[in-house]
Amino acid sequence: MRIFSLTHVALAAVLALGASAASAQTEVTAVLAGHAALPTNTTVAAPKSAGKFFETAGKFAAANRQRTEALNSIEGISFVGDPKYPRKSGGSLPIKGQAVQGFSGIVSLGKGEFLALTDNGFGSKINSQDALLMVHHVKADWAKGQVTRQKTTFLHDPDRKVPFAIQNEATTERFLTGIDFDPESIQIVGNEWWIGDEFGPYVLRVNHQGKVLGVVETIVDGKAYRGPDHYLNGRLPNYPGDAGFEVRRSGGFEPMAKSIDGKTVYPMFEWPLWDAAAKTQDMRNGKPFTRILELDVAMRTYGTRQWKYAFEEAGNVAADFQMLDATTGLVIERDDASEGSGNVCKDEPRTDCFTRPAKFKRIYKIDLAQLDADGFVKKVAFIDLTKIANPNGKAKRGPNEANFVLPHLGPEGLTVVDATHIVVVNDNNFPYSSGRTLGQPDDNELTLLDIKALVDAK
Questions:
Q1: Which residues span the domain enclosing 117?
Q2: What is the pTM of this model?
């Protein structure tokens, strides 16, 4: 079902140009089909049974990590820029309520409705102790450019399925927080939600009421893959280099795709793994790579197959992964150090402009069936999220010009809407990202794209 109608001549010209040039590592063009946003200051009240501690959030966000109760007393500073010249984001903490922000995963429910996953809170275990973990049912009105929250589900573990002590251990509902897990990807698997986590990394199984049903450890062919925040690695090493883990902090299952038949999910590491023998991150020919795993839904165990995904540049990360069909899928590959467009002053020590404007923000079509001798997937083609065609003036945030830019630090989630459309969502890292408008914290933007040229690329 088509969701919109573009000017046929303009759309045909753009898509034909992109499709005719499509080949390996070829750029094709995406067309803006809709744009809507959930305001950055959207909050939801914590369940009363959670207690007064969760009536506010962000109390541990100060640089010294000391508890701060005064609302809006901690200024947000952009993650991007010169540390000697901190650029204020315009946001602040603590806030009243829980922040409906940081959309790190998204699933289409049809008719402009989506499940949106809030990440662990404010970026780390230490500063997210008072951030509850949530899944939101939201609805996009493309004509008005508005996203509304329909419902929020709080993750909780009353049956003690989590194998370690959690923040709310001594309560009945045992609501989960950002010190327990860092949820980054979500799929609907039968009657459950499967959520990819970065701390373990783990895959959480929860029902549609948010109750934890199980936690799947990452054990592949007898080998455990763990990060420094895994509960068995919850200590500093005795000596430098004696870390004993392969998954870097905040490098777990940011992306996780699901097979078309629903029998398999494909967790993917955000960053390269650590190669202990070589004493470096996974590399080939001087370029880092990451890995895609295979998790059987029925058995809840990992298969032995792995696929390798080569990054284009050092410092790039994999932000999301979704399947188009049985063998091809889409991967968000982006840098982790740029945001902003328009008011640019590259590489200057200033705070009144974007010194590191949005640079590498792409979506690649990959083919899991076309592997080279070393097991690397084929990159078929890509779209550039800083160069989106906008022939019908669909933008609702930022300049509504012929070239539309997603200027955020983290285009973080994508979901397939139909045969030729996807929705991309940014993680606004509230209150730390300010890429759309200088000095203002980013909203959560849902961007509807026509990617026919990418789907058709061979």
A1: 8-456
A2: 0.93
